[in-house]
Every structure is written in structure tokens, then in C-alpha cells.
Amino acid sequence: MKMASNSKKWSYFFQLLLLSLALFLQIVSHKIEAGSSKVEYLPGFDGPLPFQLETGYVGLGDSEDDMQVFYYFVKSENDPKNDPLLLWLTGGPGCSSISGFVFQIGPVQFKVEEFDGSLPKLIYRASSWTKVANVIFVDLPMGTGFSYAKDVLSQRSDWKLVHHAHQFIRKWLTENPEYISNEFYMAADSYSGIPAPPLVQEIANGNEKGLQPHINLQGYILGNPVTTSEEGNDHIQYAHGMALISDELYLSLKRNCKGDYLNINPENTLCLSDMEYYNKCLEKIDLYFILNPYCNDDWLKQDQGMQTRSLARKLEARFETPLIVPDIGCENFLFFLVTQWANHRSVRKALHIREGTIGEWVRCYKDDYEFSIGNSVPFHANLSAKGYRSLIFSGDHDAVVPFFSTQAWIRSLNYSIVDDWRPWYLNDQVAGYTRTYSNKMTFATVKGAGHTAAELKPNESYVMFTRWISNRPL
């Protein structure tokens, strides 16, 4: 009887031990899932990755189940421990940071070849900014890319993007304390030129209030940045300067519209007539890159920076049997490739995407976004006054955010000029023009680039970045 009693006790003990072990493994598994996971391979890329890539989620809100922000983190290929840390926001608003990862500054790019229905191929990008910097590509605002939330639609605005990104970077650094001492820079392009400066200011304010972990904030980088809601008024001057409209039409527009081309009085028939003529002159121009051929397929007529969920379905329908191959010379062909790639099961598995969290992936999701910041110029002024460095650069063939408008708001800051307008070079060739202002602001153009410069002139943009980040003249 005693032996039987001991046997029951041991059986109970082992059951309790197994239960505790299972609970422990579940907790460990949850912690691993909640943090980052190393990506060992990328489907479509031939061979092992020549860089270190991690992906993961950071939970925000009162409960971490409320909002989960997805990110790609690429360690510097030079010296991760000491190289700068960049947080990258793609524009849109609502475009996945995968655009930065595969189109602009990241270590891979798509091989441009005719689509045959198989998984698109990736190749290494030698001019990646990750050669000299650690870069976090983050999917924000909520609902963008692989980020998800219980109530996505209530979390989509300029200011909420600012607050979420601020929470994200402090939590990410808490989970990755080895990067707390690295110099930190905010980097963004296109529409993110609106929320990025307020985000940098919020980080700076948080540091001053003693929020932890302290972020070693040094400055920010903006490419082809939207900055004010009035920049559309500079399109006319740019079109005239690039010989897209005549002198006579330009002078008539200035006279009849009185410099305001965005809020035209319906009774101002002369201005309306001039604008109709203006639009006709530009209707076959790719405004994102005026040197590009115009792509007139129906599936390409959507706004390149403002795709919606319906677009992916249209593309999918277009590629049903018999297969119709689009013109690979059109920039939007790359957007199609990334949509095919990111929706592939093997890719989601490799990136450690949580099953059931995202249905159809789309590159850009603009639905129900609240534009709550109309002008980021005051934030530039405040940040410059605090001594933070900034690099503002523009492709000189971008008609969507023309360099004319960027120069105009920089001039409005009334900074004195430290190093006046001059060419900067790559391989003894003019790569663009630059001017350095007091308050540590540098402006640069990238010659022959459109929207965005980092995508269309990667070598020049890489050299520009490496010189600036190392405090050397362009």
C-alpha cells in the first residue's frame, strides 16, 4: 500500500513538472514571437543573405494585443555596434516600409525581367545605406503592410502616426538595448516629410522629460519631402522651368490665377481656362519622373503613391489566364512584383508573419487616413534651433514635390548660408547641387532623379548619404 501511494505521488510530481515545463516553454515561445526573429533566407534570393536581417512586431497601446507594429531590421554591414541607427518611414501616407527595403535604400532589389507567374527574383543592391548604418524599416501608420490592430481605422492619422512611431522606437530600443548608445537619425521620404519632423520633435521632447530609454537623437534625413499643403502652387513654376509649358501660358497663369492654383474661384473663367490648357500640356507626362515614358495601360492609371486594397485585386484579375505581361519599362511594374512577392506563402513564412493577421497584402493603403498636420515647417525651425542636423534632398526631375517648393520653405526659415550653392560630384561628374545653411541644415539636389531620388539614382544617393552621415562635405 505504501509503494502504491508513493507511485501516485511520483506520478503527480511528474505531471506537475511536465505542466510547469509546458507553461515555461509557452512563455518563452511568446517572448520570442513578441521580439525579433532572424531571417535566414529570402525566397527569390539566390543563396545565403550577405547581410543580417531580422523581422518582428512591437506591441503598442494599453494592451499589446491592441496594435502590433511590424518592422524589418537590417544590421549595418560595416560596424553594427558603432554605426548610426536609422528609423525609416515610407510615404503615401500608408505605404509599407518594404518600399524603402527593396526600392530605395535597402540591401535587395527586384530583378527586372518579364513576369512568367513564378516568384519574382531578388538581387543584392551594392549601394544600400545599410553598408554604413543600421536601419529599421517600420510599417506605419497602423494598417500599413504587415502591421495590424483590433481597430485599425481609428488609428490612422498624422498625429497618431507620430505618437505610434515614438512609442515604437522607445520600445524597440528597450528590447534591443545594445543599440541605445548608437547615434539615432529619423529618415523618411515623400509624404512622410509631413509627420517625420513632428516625430523628431516628440522624441526630443521625450528625452528632455527623461523618458526611457534615452534616445541618442542626432538629426533627420528627408528625401523629396512633402512639407506644406500649399506646395501645389509651385508646380506651375516648375513646369515652366522645365519647358513643359510656354512662357505665354506661364505669364497668363500668374496674371489670371494670382499665384493660387489650388483654390480657384469657379467664377474665375480665365484662370480655369489657363489651368485646363496647363493640364492638357502635362497629361502625358509622368509627374513622378518627367524623364520616364508615360505608361497608359488602364492598370497603371492609379496614383503611384496612393494605392488602395482594390488595386491589388484589379492587378490579380489582370494576370489571370491567358497571362497578360505588363510593360516592364513602367515603374509600376516593380509595384506589381512586390505585391506578388509579399503575398506568397513562402515569403510570409520566411519573414515570420503571424498567420491570420493580414489577408491580402498591399503596398499602399490610404483608406480612412486623417490629414491632421498641414505644415511641418515650424517643426523644422524648432529642431534646427535645438541644434539637430538635417539633410533635405530632392530629385530635380520630380514634378510631384518639385525642388522649387522645397527650396521655398527652406528660404522661409531665414537661415544664413554657410556654404553657398555649388555642384557636388561622383566620379568627377556632377551628381547634383548643394547648399549648407546655419543651424546644421544641408539641402541637395540629385541630378536626373525623380520621385524618389534614392530609388531612381541609388549610387548618387548612397554617396550623398555616406558623406553627410560621416560629417563630410557633399
From TrEMBL:
Its main location: secreted. InterPro entries: AB_hydrolase_fold (IPR029058), Peptidase_S10 (IPR001563). GO terms for biological process: proteolysis; secondary metabolic process. Keywords: Carboxypeptidase, Disulfide bond, Glycoprotein, Hydrolase, Protease, Secreted, Signal. Pfam families: Peptidase_S10. Residues 1-29 form the signal peptide. The keyword Protease applies. One of its GO terms (cellular component) is extracellular region. Coiled coil: none annotated. One of its GO terms (molecular function) is serine-type carboxypeptidase activity. It is found in: Secreted. Belongs to the peptidase S10 family. This is Serine carboxypeptidase-like. The lineage of its organism: Eukaryota, Viridiplantae, Streptophyta, Embryophyta, Tracheophyta.
